[in-house]
């Protein structure tokens, strides 16, 4: 059988919410053994947030949590217990990577900061990801992805010129920083292969997200022009926007970068004269005219016709469209995995393909503490009597 590219890699995963778990999911789906540590006293916060399967809340029923934790093992250990290191120290000795995404200082409180970890395991690589970074004047401030996007300059540029800044859907910085975390971890692994040395990898979600506005920052420094909210406007494009189509909440994105594309779209909409007249009046008039013409048309049929004519177009997919999309299905993007409480659901696979070391999603997200006994006995070598003692003392939660 072909092995995943991270086959044999061992990860102690203390991450929570989204930014950290998305990064460790990439390791797990590509062959690494990833052990997630949490407890019923302090579960991963997104277990408590929907959407829940069948709209029934439950600690093991969150689709949000599920999609970030495929292929992982889950154990329940009370990290605030005075004797937690009795279990965690062997886990650190076993691991190649320790990943965490708490506010700076939490791991040190548990005796698991990098200086302590490398005394236990000199080859350990530690990843710490937080909103503001491990040091600096704001390192101890609480915050989530919405604040991260705002402080990285994203929200100031998002929205319409005559309206307040808009918040992009979801915790935006949580979706950006894992891509940098994975690259940084891979670089640290390569360095360790060459030198035998582990190292501490520390990142700020705000700094990672600020990479996305590099062109705007360069423009500001060179020309003095500060990027502003501009709706769907794209400089240099003849047409660039999202337009209504037939049906409930059906929209299509259309773009014309040159006259050839413009003429093709005008022919498809059968209104060259009206469209050219609206174009001469300005962007608002043009957007209004295009919207009138697309409103009664089926979005998928229009997208198909536009693509055949060489006009860039895409339906604004709903989640249900993604799950039924024939292109994603043909590329085996979604993996059906069975979960004891939620049943069989489709999980996102990696967005990339390794032809020699293909990814394989091996299991659905773990129920809280699902693999505690398995990990402690099969991986860490504890006995049944040890487990009974841990439970009697309240270490396993």
TrEMBL record:
- Asked if the keyword rRNA-binding belongs to this entry, the reply reads no
Which Gene3D superfamilies does the annotation name?
Crotonobetainyl-coa:carnitine coa-transferase, domain 1 (3.40.50.10540), formyl-coa transferase, domain 3 (3.30.1540.10)
**Which UniProt keywords are present, listed alphabetically?**
Transferase
Q: Which residues cross the membrane?
A: none
MF (Gene Ontology): succinyl-CoA:(R)-benzylsuccinate CoA-transferase activity
User: Domain of life, per the record?
Assistant: Bacteria
Top EC category: transferase
Q: Which residues form a coiled coil?
A: none
EC number(s) per UniProt?
Answer: 2.8.3.15
Read off the InterPro entries from this record: CoA-transferase_III_domain, CoA-Trfase_fam_III, CoA-Trfase_III_dom3_sf, CoA-Trfase_III_dom_1_sf
Annotated PANTHER family: SUCCINATE--HYDROXYMETHYLGLUTARATE COA-TRANSFERASE (PTHR48207)
The protein in question is named: Benzylsuccinate CoA-transferase BbsF subunit
* Species, as recorded: Actibacterium naphthalenivorans
């Amino acid at each position: 059988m072909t092995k995943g590219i991270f086959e044999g890699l061992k990860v102690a995963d203390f991450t929570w919410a989204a930014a950290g778990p998305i990064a460790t999911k990439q390791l797990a789906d590509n062959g690494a053994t990833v052990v997630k540590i949490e407890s019923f006293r302090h579960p991963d916060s997104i277990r408590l947030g929907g959407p829940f399967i069948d709209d029934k809340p439950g600690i093991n029923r969150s689709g949000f949590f599920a999609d970030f934790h495929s292929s992982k093992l889950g154990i329940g250990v009370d990290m605030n217990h005075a004797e937690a290191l009795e279990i965690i120290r062997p886990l650190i000795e076993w691991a190649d990577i320790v990943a965490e995404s708490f506010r700076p200082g939490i791991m040190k409180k548990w005796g698991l900061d990098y200086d302590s970890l490398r005394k236990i395991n000199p080859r350990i690589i530690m990843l710490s990801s937080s909103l503001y970074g491990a040091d600096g004047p704001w390192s101890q401030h609480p915050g989530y992805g919405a604040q991260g996007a705002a402080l990285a300059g994203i929200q100031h540029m998002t929205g319409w010129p005559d309206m307040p800044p808009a918040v992009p859907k979801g915790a935006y910085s949580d979706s950006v920083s894992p891509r940098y975390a994975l690259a940084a971890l891979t670089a640290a692994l390569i360095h360790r292969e060459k030198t035998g040395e582990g190292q501490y990898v520390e990142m700020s979600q705000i700094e990672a997200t600020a990479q996305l506005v590099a062109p705007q920052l360069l423009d500001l420094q060179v020309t003095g022009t500060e990027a502003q909210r501009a709706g769907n406007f794209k400089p240099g494009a003849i047409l660039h926007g999202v337009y209504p189509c037939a049906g409930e909440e059906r929209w299509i994105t259309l773009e014309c970068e040159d006259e050839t594309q413009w003429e093709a779209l005008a022919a498809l909409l059968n209104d060259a004269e009206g469209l050219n007249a609206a174009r001469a009046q300005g962007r608002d008039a043009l957007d209004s005219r295009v919207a009138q013409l697309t409103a009664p048309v089926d979005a998928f049929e229009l997208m198909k016709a536009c693509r055949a004519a060489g006009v860039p177009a895409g339906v604004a997919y709903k989640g249900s469209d993604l799950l039924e999309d024939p292109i994603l299905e043909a590329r085996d993007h979604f993996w059906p995995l069975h979960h004891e409480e939620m049943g069989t659901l489709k999980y996102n696979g990696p967005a990339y393909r390794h032809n020699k070391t293909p990814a394989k999603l091996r299991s659905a997200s773990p129920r809280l503490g699902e693999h505690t006994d398995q990990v402690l006995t099969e991986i860490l070598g504890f006995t049944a009597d040890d487990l009974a003692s841990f439970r009697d003392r309240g270490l396993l939660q």
